[in-house]
Each structure stands twice: as structure tokens, then as C-alpha cells.
Amino acid sequence: MATYECQDCEQVLPSKRELKLHMKVHRKGHKKERRFTCDVCSKDFSQQSGLQQHQRTHTNEKPYLCDYCGRTFAQIGNLRTHSLQHTQEAPFVCETCGARFRNGGNLKKHKQVHANAYTCGECSKTFKDADRLRGHQLLHGNTKPFACDSCDKAFVSKSKLLAHSRVHTKEKPYACDLCDKTFTQKSAVKQHRKLHANEKPFLCHACGKSFAQKINLQNHVTIHAKETNLSCDTCKARFQNRTDLDAHEQSHTRVQPVQLDESFLDAHAIESFHEVDVLDQCSMSHSMEEQFPGSLYNDELERLMQEALFKSELWTAVRDGLDQAV
User: Fold this and answer.
1) Hey, is 188 helix, strand or coil?
2) Model pTM above 0.70
3) Are residues 54 and 151 in the same domain?
4) Using an 8 Å Cβ cutoff, are 154 and 147 in contact?
5) d(CA 241, CA 245)
6) Rounded CA gap, 45 and 57, in Å?
7) 3-class SS at 287?
8) 3-state helix, strand, coil in the chain (%, to 5)
9) Could you tell me if 52 and 90 lie in one domain?
10) Please, is 59 exposed, middle or buried when counting C-beta atoms within 10 Å of its C-beta (0-12, 13-18, 19+)?
11) Backbone angles phi, psi at 230, to 5 degrees
12) How many domains are there within the chain?
């Protein structure tokens, strides 16, 4: 737990600072060298009690027993802190509001509530002081009181103005600790370090390619924006990106040879099947008028017509082959 124990007298203190102040009591009035030495690790102590407590870390001895649950401890200070769980005592008191806690760690967490006492009325975000709250409130009012002397730009905070001014001064105070490359802003260093770590968190949803920096992804997606007129060489169907086109073209390459039996030797049956297929495409085009408004309907209709043409040519080739076989 977040408590600090004096090795000389076993007193438990709620913070490291109070422990340091307490230790001065033992050091005051004498400057003798520590004469109690651990024969295992050679660590020195000013008092024998401190040495005895330390030696238990080597022997794993736990002589202090909890009367409530039987748990044992190597240090009496740890037993005292543990016992508070059974007695419900809360000796750690908040000086601001009087709230009580059983250990110093919980008191420290509680004090953060008072540390962020300034609350924004717009979004309820809290701040440690009034100046930070006022700077934050400028974001809601869209006020930009900090103007750049070198250009017409203005900013909501002094820190943002300072970061912008480096564009004019060419100052680059942030350096990469791996390659010594410098940057004008701290955020740029963080992005740059991803190159060394080979991290690529920015993913293109069109093709699956990933990038280390967002700007590289933005430049990449313009490639897909230019691919809106990609078409299939086999059936002339059109697609908006290369990934969808490649997936579609696989549908043509997956066609397997068909083992024809006597029932397929009837060319009339094949022709009838072709006519039904074309009629299905036609009836589908009428229902599409309700599903695809405007130009989307025309694009989809053209794609289906090209697909129907491809199937028609395919069945014609099969029929001619069967005629020759007969």
C-alpha cells in the first residue's frame, strides 16, 4: 500500500515527504556512522531494530500475526495498515473536506478531486486552476485573441501561437532520440518514431494497405479516387476501386469445365435456357428502376447488359461446339 515505514522505529507515515521529515528526528544530535551491517547483503543501519526488520527480507520470517484473520507480516507497520481493514478505522484525513481513508494511497487519489476544482460550464471538463479553465473556455466561444505578428493567423491559446510561430522562425526544438531528426512540434516527433518502430496504424479500407503517418494515407487514397472508371475486360462491368475489380475478375477465372451428358446435347434446351436467362436480366432491369435512382440506375443497367451479352456469347460458343460434336 502507499504507506512509508521508518526502519528505525517502525512508525508508519502517509507520504515519502513526511517520512523524510521524520527521519531527521533519528539523525538529529549525532553524526555517527551506521554500525549495524547485514551479513547477507552488507547493507548498513543506524539501529539494530532496523537491521532486524531488514534481515526478514532474506529469511522470509513473518512474526507479526493478525488477530482477526491469522495473516502474518514481516513488518509491524504492514500489520497495522492491514488491521484497518478489520476495524474500519480511517486515520488518513483529507484537509480540504474532512473525508477519511484507511490508507494514504486512497487519500492521495481523493485529493485529485480537489486539484481539478475548476469546472467548465459548457462541457463539465475540470482544470487545476482558473487560468487553464479560461483558456479552455475560449474553445467554446470560438475566440482567438492570440494573433501571429508574422501573418494573419490567430489562435485560441498562447501555446498554439508559440507552436505556429516556429513555422516562421524555422525553430525545431523537438528531436528524435533515435536518429536526431528535429521537428517543430512534439506531435510530429511521435508520428516520426512510428517509422522506427515499424508501426502502421493508418489503414486504407479500399485496398488494405497501411501507413505509419496519416498524411501518407491521405495521399494514397487519392489513387483510388482516380479509379472510379475501372472496368472488367471480360464483361465491361465497372467498379470504383481496384480491389473490387480484382475480386470480380476472379468470378470469371473460377468457371470450371462442364462434363456434358446427353441431356445437354439438345441445342434447343440450351437456347431455351439462354432465353430465360436474358428474360431474367430484363425483368430485373425493370425492378431496378425503383431501387437505383438517377445515374446509379443507368450505371447498374449498363453493367447488367454487358454481363448478359457475355453470357449470350458464351452460350453461343457452347451451342456451336455441340453442333459440331453431333
Assistant:
1) helix
2) no
3) no
4) yes
5) 7
6) 14
7) helix
8) 50, 10, 35
9) yes
10) exposed
11) -70, 135
12) 3
